[in-house]
Amino acid sequence: MANFIPAGDGGHTGWRAAVQKLGGNLAGMVIPNIGAFIAWGLLTALFIPTGWLPNEELSSMVGPMIINLLPILIGYTGGRLVHGQRGAVIGAVATVGVIVGASIPMFLGAMIIGPLAAWILKKIDGVLDPITPPGFEMLIGNFSLGISGLLMAILGFLGVGPIVNSFSDVLGAGVQALIDTGLLPLASILVEPAKILFLNNAINHGVLAPIGVVQAEEMGKSIMFMLETNPGPGLGILVAFWLAGNNVLRGSAPGAIIIHFLGGIHEIYFPYVLLRPVLVLAAIAGGATGVATFLVTGVGLVATPSPGSIFAYLAVTPPGNHFGVLLGILLSATVSFLVAWVILKASKGGDDDLEAAKAQSKSMKTGGAE
């Protein structure tokens, strides 16, 4: 990906295209850096005081990674998507301002300031490049980036960082209120449909993960890491297609199950939901069941399981939490399967063109732009 996804046109305008485009762009900043998230997650799971191999010296790397490295990587990648290597550099510089200007991990702040800084530099380069005298390209190019980067870092420090920090505090207070009242499972009403719109990475890494990191630092684990990443709802839907779908879908479902549950690529089941949009009810029911189970059993993860594979889940599950985690995944898969099975049985004879659904899913992922 060399550029951000352009806005949709024609029949793809409106709020849906805008939301999908936003989700695609945010995912484009996170997905290339998943390996770094895995490294941090394994480091956390192993060496923090409640981890499998507690080690005070090695666990000292956990904080710098989540506070500094991961946001800078996101800001760097976002800048690169907008304006190549120069955009990547200014995106990283500006992200440092956001990091220092806040007290929580600035994933969302990096997603904002990185592309913004690169876009501004791109406009500046568009003005300066045509009028730069021969031989002065390096001088003017470096100083324009340096001065712009300084100003964007100051903007991040004084503006973006504190604003995102306050926004996260409000979200955190709201989430805590849902936890205290036992209403957190209702979050699935928003999370599960948003995943089908390819906002999964934006929701997980932009909103839930920063809240989860704060909770994990205080309590050694957080349920926030599990709201979007639970593979149970998708697994139940795919098993329902395997057992109750037509012959073509039955043949493709087992492979999709392996990719989804073992590989952690949740997007594989989205086309199946698009075949029967009402199946989003199965995803919501399964997701809410999983969250309720996690709440009742008091479990959490020490880091985000990226990708959302059962192996990643087990890798970041702290000691003593495996029963509740596995039970939540099992029950969420069971509930989503039962709801999806009933829906599929009741809608026999409908349109089961999986290839068309995959094409639609791909179009949605790119915001309708080819």
What features would you describe in this structure?
The chain is mainly alpha-helical and 370 residues long. The chain is built from 15 helices and no strands. α1 crosses α4, α4 crosses α6 and α9 runs antiparallel to α10. About 2% of the residues have low confidence.
The main pleated sheet reads as: none
Q: Helix share of residues?
A: over 70%
Q: How many DSSP helices?
A: 15
Q: What's the gyration radius in Å?
A: 22 Å
* Residue fraction in strands: under 5%
Enumerate the spans where pLDDT stays under 50 for 5 or more consecutive residues.
6-13
| Tertiary shape | globular
Per DSSP E runs of 2 or more residues, the count of β-strands stands at 0
Structural category? mainly alpha
Order of helices and strands: HHHHHHHHHHHHHHH
Distance between the termini: 13 Å
Q: Round the mean pLDDT to the nearest integer and report it.
A: 84
Layout of helices and strands:
Layout: H1 15-30, H2 34-47, H3 56-59, H4 62-100, H5 107-128, H6 137-181, H7 188-196, H8 200-219, H9 232-244, H10 247-262, H11 270-275, H12 280-297, H13 310-315, H14 322-346, H15 354-365
Helix pairs in contact: 1-4, 1-8, 2-4, 4-5, 4-6, 5-6, 5-8, 7-12, 9-10, 9-12, 9-14, 12-14
Essential attributes:
370 residues; mainly alpha; 15 helices; 0% strand
Structure summarized in a few sentences:
It contains 15 helices and no strands.
